[in-house]
Fold each of these.
Amino acid sequence: MKILSALVSFLFVVPLFFNVSAFAANIEDGAFLADKNSFAYRLYLNSSYKNTIKEPRGYGSYNDIYKGSLDLYYGLTEDITLAFQGIYNYNGTEDRKGVQKANLVSFIRAADDVFFFDVLLGMSLGGILDAEMEAKVTGTVGGDTEEKISPRNYSYGMYGVIAGGRFGMKATPNLTMAILFEATHRFSQDDTIDAEVDATGLRHQSLPVTGTKFKAKGTFKPLTDYYTQIAFSYKAADKIYVNTKFGYQYYAEKHLKEARVDSASANAIDEGVITQLVAQGRLNDSWYEFSFGISGIYTITNYLQVGPYYEYMSGKNETGALQTKQRMEYGLRINGAF
């Protein structure tokens, strides 16, 4: 957390050395585009609390999950903004950590008046990430086994293309409404599956009964994810903005074309798990989530806008994956333009 504190201090102190007369537009605004030949950023630093259902362990919760989101914008022209969108989990979130999102997108303004319309085109770099799954094998005396595939809640690790649109209206000089819709089509690709077999209770003369960890290679079929949101931005006072959003996220489940064990430590049980996985053909990792968020932003300088935000999410996963009953996220938003 020392690094986080130093970063926040840096962002507050550095702008004081610049003489800035104009203030940036509200970067949280759903209609935001960066000025030509200029940069803008949105940095979210947050923690979250989640209630979950995880088979076969029942209810549980995750506390103090730290995550950072960074969006970088560049105004290529007055009507075209390029953006990089990334998310990093500092510690485990549903057995995940590290980079969770890496997108390159463009916003192309086709109409800009009281009503505006943007075309959204881009690519997902999710293929730089590995898929993860866990498998449970139970057994009885005599060696009869029941294999249960329980993938972790993870659908991001595939390359893809992004397309969508953003439209809305500037209802008043102080109020903007924007509706965003985007679809991400992810391509078929080979991916590494980190598998863990819990073989507790299985009786076998030559195989371990406590479990093994191994790697497998899987080829996944194409899939398409969807996201949509409605956002409102209101200028409540000079330099003060209030922003709300209602969102819906859908991640399609992964389907396997083929898979094979790719680890020297794998044994006959592991081979059986992968055979069962291919026969089943699906990872049961589809999930959807509804969300509501609200933030307040205060403009300090052109380089720095800060404010708290809160987001509540509720959703459901397919059977076998980690099921999110609800999660609450809260933290600090730091925005700016230069």
Amino acid sequence: MNISDPKYLEHLRDLPTGYLLDLMTDHEDGDNDSVAWVLRERGIPQEEIERRVTRRKNSNWPRPYVFWEAARWLTILNAIIVGYFNLTGLYRLLLGDHAFKGALLFLAVGSVAFGFYLGFKLTTHVYMGEKTRLHCGFPLQVGFVNLETGEEITRGKATMNIAMALNALIGINLSLFPLVFIYVVMA
């Protein structure tokens, strides 16, 4: 029991209630007393904590980290398909003689700028990636936080920069797709 460890309690206080309940549900051998202490500090009675943990244990739905893992791989697969579509569509736009070619290229530059912003937001997104980890960066992680110890771990500088660049590329793909789709339909 780590109730006497103020650093560990401060780490637990930073986590959302859902993560704390999942921590109690998934780790019966873990420090559930400290987690329950923090939940009671938030005004949740012990009976409610036990009811929520029991409900999560008996639920047929997979844990959130299973959905996030599926979403990561689905996003990567979609980014590859949409990236190919965007490249071929932009190539046709550059070589084509469309009446709105200049306006579409101007909008494409704006979409790329917005895509970098979206990629930055994806890189700073925090979600539950595993039973014991919060991941930072979607779909490619740039780091994670160990939920049991509170330790923050980042990837190596080169790997982190590559992951950030690929997340930005995915953001660009997502923002360019509607514009390229409109061009392909109009052409």
